[in-house]
Amino acid sequence: MIRVLKFYDRVKKTIDDLSPLRMNHRKTEEYTNSHLFADAQYLATHQDDNKNVPPKIYKIFAVRTEILNILKEDDSFIYAHNIIAENRNGFTSMESLKTGEPKSVSDNTPQQIQEMIRRSKEDYPKESLDEYLLDEENAAFYHNRKRELERDNDWWLDAFNRSYALFDEMRAKLNDVWEARSVVKQLLPDNNLLKITVMEIVLCMMEHSNYQLDEERLKNMRSLSFTISSTSWV
Description:
The chain is mainly alpha-helical. The protein has helices at 8-18, 25-35, 38-45, 55-71, 78-85, 109-119, 129-132, 136-149, 153-172, 177-187, 192-208, 215-229. Helix 4 (55-71) crosses helix 5 (78-85), helix 9 (153-172) packs across helix 11 and helix 10 crosses helix 12. It starts with 7 loop residues before the first helix and ends in a 5-residue tail after the last helix.
């Protein structure tokens, strides 16, 4: 089922901002307190004044709810999910601001988050080609093509960094295959050899990646894969 977001731009920016903080509970909490609890802050400082409340104060609760509905499907954001669900902020503990139930967290949670990020192909950019080659599919592609292409490690590192970034952007737009296809045009490099290699890596990733994709998004992934593989990008 496709979810229509009323506050798409705000929600997307927030999730993009939270993404690199996922393994750090303290920084996640600092971010959410600074950006997602304007209503709690207002209530704490205007307890006796219910008039002339700024519109953004009413909106932020709806924004948090939309964010929570997305984060509950991705446990790599478990820290942010629990903070929002429990209304953990430094301003007020009002029960009415809670938006859900927290998920279980343990000492193994950081390692579990790291593994989820790896399996989702969101662990980029990297500073070394060797880091990409720890992935079996990446290593198979690289060793199959390196002699033919005759490029150095820096070139290959650039190719994989570009491929992961493109794959990530495309996956975020799987609800609209044609919009996802437009992302390819925007992000592909100008150099033809690099362009072809990036597309081949992305198609390989699409073929083998089904992590955290429901049936509808898997169907869209296959449709997108067919569309871009049948398109000439050179």
